[in-house]
């Protein structure tokens, strides 16, 4: 199958979580023998910020971990739409320009033979619905939503059975337990500060409990304003700045445990959708404790794959137990890893995507292959 994916950036994961999952899925599709191409705009905000902060060396980890991947950068929308005209499957991420989304929709309405899917991995459908109205999806064959509650939003807008749940997952070719176990100490949190969508939660469920328990805390991520850095300093956490996603397995391997603190919209408006870091952390065999979130789709086994803290005091209790009990750490890590390997790898998602595409094959394509 000839597959094209339009992404904000494949090369940069600077404040761009979709790159994590996308890299793994494209690699799995390629390993199955499919022809895969990725397209990204020439002026991608994430890539520009990465290069500004770290120069070309900021891309080294990605290139080393994914030597088989690459992307074509485009400026002219009409030309790149024509470029994918002979594909069988075209996917467009929601962080694409509305003009590109509309141009591909128009091409599909004019008779383009590919199956065209819109891929939504954000909360804007509920947090900024006016922004989403800029996207012309008339002509798209379906929507891929990264959780059931988000898919339900699209179904309510008339997509019905053409709104599919396509969760993120771990790229287990990269995210796996260390081959040789070394010394582990303290906690690690990898995440961006963003737009104060979880600043109070981070203080309640991460900074304060870690300090109270006496576990050193290393923090990695971008977009931390001065007030956030002051908060980290007040609690004794060490801020390391941006870390390439490809480097995350090595960082996890040096720490006792990590914490999942979901953004507020995913707790209140889109329950059941975990961050990509949950999949990646469990795949690396690091014990995980979660701030409150509702695993509404039973993706995991709460209490067995990870501990859940409903209050700051419960988080302190869990962290203290993990710090003192190697057997507990080992049991959580093994359970979480087993769930990832059984259900939540990029190989699983590649198969799901192919199944969805088969169910939506355009009549023109069916006639051509009859």
Keywords, please?
alpha/beta; disordered C terminus; 370 residues; 14% strand; seven-stranded parallel β-sheet
SS content category = alpha/beta
The main β sheet shows up as: 7 strands, parallel
> What's the number of helices?
17
Order of helices and strands: EHEHHEHEHEHHEHEEHEHEHEHHEEHHHH
What's the total count of β strands?
13
Helix content: 40-55%
Round the Cα radius of gyration to an integer and report it: 21 Å
State the end-to-end distance: 16 Å
Beta-strand proportion: 5-15%
Poorly predicted tracts of residues: 364-370
Strand order of the largest sheet: 3-2-1-4-5-6-7
Indicate the overall shape.
Answer: globular
Let me know the average pLDDT. Answer: 96
In short:
The protein has about 375 residues and is α/β, with parallel strands linked by helices.
What does this structure look like?
With about 375 residues, the chain is an alpha/beta fold. Helices cover about 45% and strands about 15% of the residues. The chain is built from 17 helices and 13 strands. It has a 7-stranded parallel beta sheet, with helices on both faces. A 6-stranded parallel beta sheet has the order 10-9-8-11-12-13, with helices on both faces. Strand 8, helix 9 and strand 9 form a beta-alpha-beta unit. The two termini are about 15 Å apart.
Question: In terms of topology, how is this protein built?
Answer:
Blueprint (H helix, E strand, L loop, with lengths): L1 E5 L11 H14 L3 E7 L3 H10 L5 H6 L5 E4 L2 H7 L5 E5 L4 H12 L5 E6 L3 H4 L1 H4 L9 E4 L2 H12 L3 E3 L21 E4 L8 H15 L3 E4 L5 H10 L2 E2 L8 H5 L4 E4 L3 H5 L7 H8 L4 E3 L16 E2 L3 H13 L1 H18 L2 H14 L3 H7 L1
Helix pairs in contact: 1-16, 9-10, 9-14
């Amino acid at each position: 199958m000839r597959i094209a994916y339009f992404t904000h950036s494949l090369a940069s994961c600077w404040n761009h979580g979709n790159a994590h999952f996308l890299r793994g899925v494209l690699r799995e599709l390629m390993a199955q023998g499919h022809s895969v191409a990725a397209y990204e705009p020439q002026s991608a905000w994430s890539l520009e910020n990465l290069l500004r902060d770290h120069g070309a060396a900021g891309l080294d980890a990605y290139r080393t971990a994914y030597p088989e991947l690459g992307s074509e950068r485009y400026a002219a929308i009409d030309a790149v739409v024509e470029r994918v005209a002979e594909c069988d499957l075209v996917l467009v991420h929601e962080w694409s320009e509305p003009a590109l989304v509309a141009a591909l929709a128009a091409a599909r309405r004019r008779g383009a033979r590919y199956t065209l899917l819109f891929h939504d991995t954000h909360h804007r459908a509920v947090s900024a619905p006016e922004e989403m109205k800029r996207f012309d999806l008339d002509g798209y064959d379906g929507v891929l939503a990264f959780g059931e509650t988000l898919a339900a939003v699209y179904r309510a807008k008339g997509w019905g059975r053409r709104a599919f749940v396509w969760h993120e997952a771990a790229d287990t070719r990269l995210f796996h337990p260390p081959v040789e176990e070394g010394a582990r100490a303290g906690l690690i949190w990898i995440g961006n500060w963003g737009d104060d969508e979880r600043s109070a939660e981070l203080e309640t469920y991460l900074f304060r409990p870690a300090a109270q328990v006496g576990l050193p805390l290393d923090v990695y991520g971008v977009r931390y304003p001065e007030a956030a850095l002051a908060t980290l300093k007040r609690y004794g956490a060490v801020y390391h700045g941006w870390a390439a996603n490809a480097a995350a397995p090595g960082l996890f391997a040096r720490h006792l445990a990590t914490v999942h603190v979901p953004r507020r919209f995913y707790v209140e408006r889109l329950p059941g959708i975990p961050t990509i870091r949950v999949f990646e952390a469990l795949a690396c065999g690091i014990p995980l404790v979660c701030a409150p979130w509702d695993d509404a789709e039973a993706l995991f086994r709460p209490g067995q794959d990870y501990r859940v803290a409903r209050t700051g005091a419960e988080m302190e209790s869990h962290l203290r137990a993990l710090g003192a009990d190697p057997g507990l750490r080992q049991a959580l890590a093994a359970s979480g890893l087993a769930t990832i390997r059984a259900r939540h790898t990029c190989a699983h998602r590649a198969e799901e995507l192919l199944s969805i595409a088969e169910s939506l094959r355009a009549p023109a394509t069916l006639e051509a292959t009859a």
